[in-house]
Design goal:
Elements lengths: L2 H12 L24 H15 L5 H5 L6 H17 L1
């Protein structure tokens, strides 16, 4: 299972929906009208991602609005996993 699929699994467990997020594009804003996550959902999503992938996000990942869609989050996770392997 790749990073994107794991993110979808986390999202499905966090906030189940009838459409199972099958119609969501990877660049869809998580707080936008289609996904509709609120700030509490985002915090849980953030923490669950860190736990699942055994990584830590840094301030830059969040402040620069990189944590806004599944595509960007997948990219950040990939970077963190590569960094982790190097250390």
């Amino acid at each position: 299972m790749d990073i994107y699929d794991k993110l979808l699994d986390i999202l499905r467990k966090l906030k189940p929906r009838d459409d199972d997020y099958t119609n969501i594009k990877d660049d869809e804003a998580l707080t936008g009208p289609k996904v509709k996550l609120n700030y509490i959902d985002l915090v849980y999503f953030f923490l669950e991602i860190e736990k699942t992938f055994n990584i830590n996000f840094n301030e830059e990942d969040v402040i620069n609005y990189q944590f806004n869609n599944l595509k960007n989050i997948s990219s950040i996770i990939s970077k963190r996993l590569i960094e982790k392997r190097k250390n």
